[in-house]
């Protein structure tokens, strides 16, 4: 090939030099129609690559020179690379090696220099593109996006999120949810952290932010800010309580989120395969009223608040006691998370039931 016995691109005609640089980094060939351009075609091609891929030409040349020195040292074991200097003419593309100001460029080194330049530029392109992607997704932290499961990496799941791949760790997976390759699902961009292969994008299915994003997607009043999500208490895959509020006249915050015949909230529930129940309640500034709302569907509650200890003692009719506590204590546990108060529940018979029982005892005594 032409580069095996030379270090310069000048042996090729204009079009050939541009084709070489473009093919070297995988870019399509661009035809230059302006005649008698004085500027070197190597410089034109380098600037074309730099502008299209967002690279600094000077930084690319410096990196290439460092890589050429490394390639020279590889072919000449034992040399002190600090005593050598590589030059790369930004105009012609000619590369040379100097030792104590003496040209020691070996014959046929042009092929190595050309391959090294190609590898370095491609690596710069990949790193620049990765940095751009990471920067883009840093702006998306806390937002909801669509993804598709690509593969499993131990307990983690690798998710295709469009421009790149993300990781869903086991802690961010819903434990009773089934996952399989090519499955499409909605996730929240949780964070970007340093991993084994550089910065990694972490996504979640268990976060409360995912529910907020889904509400914004399904409920226009939430996305427009007319309805505000004040608090969320979630046990992913089981049950969630959401407290919503609106100070806009004529807007029912709960009704807006639930939708006509429950169509809006059902769309969110179906996102989790129908496994997760979602209770939407109205946030109240009055703590007693808020705790009462949080313990729904239980009714006829009597609430006593201890503000210093942040505890609430709730008395509920005996027949509604199991409803207030919930299965395995889930309802009261979520209500406690939602309100920020430790809730203690006890059952109490209604007054009319007490009277009925008292009268029944009197009647039995009279009969005896």
Note down, in words, how this protein is organized.
- It is a single chain.
- With 368 residues, this protein is α+β, with helices and mostly antiparallel strands.
- The radius of gyration is 35 Å and the shape is elongated.
- The chain has helices spanning 14-24, 41-53, 57-75, 109-138, 208-218, 220-223, 253-258, 263-271, 287-294, 321-325, 330-339, 351-367; strands at 84-88, 95-99, 102-103, 144-153, 156-160, 165-168, 184-195, 198-204, 228-235, 239-245, 277-282, 302-306, 311-317, 342-348.
- Residues 1-21 and 27-38 have low confidence and may be disordered.
- It is built from twelve helices and 14 strands.
- Helix 1 (14-24) runs parallel beside helix 2 (41-53) and helix 9 packs antiparallel against helix 11.
Q: Which key features would you list for this structure?
A:
368 residues, alpha+beta, N Utilization Substance Protein A, Chain:P, domain 4, GMP Synthetase, Chain A, domain 3, 4 domains, 3-stranded antiparallel beta sheet, 39% helix, disordered N terminus
- Overall tally of structural domains: 4
Low-confidence stretches: 1-21, 27-38
* Shape summary: elongated
Quaternary structure annotation? single chain
Largest sheet: 5 strands, antiparallel
List the helices and strands and how they pair.
Elements: H1 14-24, H2 41-53, H3 57-75, E1 84-88, E2 95-99, E3 102-103, H4 109-138, E4 144-153, E5 156-160, E6 165-168, E7 184-195, E8 198-204, H5 208-218, H6 220-223, E9 228-235, E10 239-245, H7 253-258, H8 263-271, E11 277-282, H9 287-294, E12 302-306, E13 311-317, H10 321-325, H11 330-339, E14 342-348, H12 351-367
Parallel strand pairs: 10-11, 13-14
Antiparallel strand pairs: 1-2, 2-3, 4-5, 4-7, 5-6, 7-8, 9-10, 12-13
Helix pairs in contact: 1-2, 3-4, 5-8, 9-11
């Amino acid at each position: 090939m032409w580069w095996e016995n030379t270090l310069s691109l000048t042996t090729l005609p204009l079009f050939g030099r541009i084709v070489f640089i473009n093919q070297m980094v995988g870019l399509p060939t661009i035809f230059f129609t302006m005649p008698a351009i004085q500027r070197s075609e190597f410089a034109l091609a380098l600037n074309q690559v730099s502008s299209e891929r967002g690279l600094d030409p000077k930084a690319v040349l410096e990196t290439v020179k460092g890589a050429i020195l490394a390639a020279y040292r590889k072919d000449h074991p034992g040399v002190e690379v600090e005593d050598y200097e590589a030059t790369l003419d930004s105009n012609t593309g000619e590369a040379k090696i100097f030792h104590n100001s003496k040209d020691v460029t070996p014959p046929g080194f042009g092929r190595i220099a050309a391959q090294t330049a190609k590898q370095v530029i491609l690596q710069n392109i990949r790193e620049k593109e990765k940095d751009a992607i990471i920067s883009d997704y840093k702006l998306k932290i806390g937002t909801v996006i669509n993804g598709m499961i690509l593969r499993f990496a131990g307990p983690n799941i690798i998710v295709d999120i469009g421009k790149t791949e993300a990781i869903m760790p086991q802690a961010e997976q819903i434990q009773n949810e089934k996952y399989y390759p090519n499955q499409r699902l909605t996730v929240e961009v949780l964070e970007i952290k340093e991993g084994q292969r550089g910065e990694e994008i972490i996504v979640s299915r268990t976060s409360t932010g995912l529910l907020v994003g889904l509400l914004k997607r399904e409920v226009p009043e939430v996305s427009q800010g007319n309805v505000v999500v004040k608090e969320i208490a979630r046990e992913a895959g089981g049950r969630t309580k959401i407290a919503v509020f609106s100070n806009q006249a004529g807007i029912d915050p709960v009704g807006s989120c639930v939708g006509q015949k429950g169509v809006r909230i059902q769309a969110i529930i179906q996102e989790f395969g129908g496994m997760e129940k979602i209770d939407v309640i109205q946030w109240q500034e009055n703590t007693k009223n808020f705790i009462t709302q949080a313990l729904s569907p239980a009714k006829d509650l009597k609430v006593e608040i201890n503000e210093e200890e942040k505890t609430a003692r709730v008395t509920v009719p005996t027949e509604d006691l199991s409803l207030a506590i919930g299965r395995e204590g889930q309802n009261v546990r979520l209500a406690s998370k939602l309100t920020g108060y430790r809730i203690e529940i006890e059952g109490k018979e209604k007054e009319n039931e007490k009277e009925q029982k008292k009268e029944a005892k009197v009647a039995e005594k009279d009969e005896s």
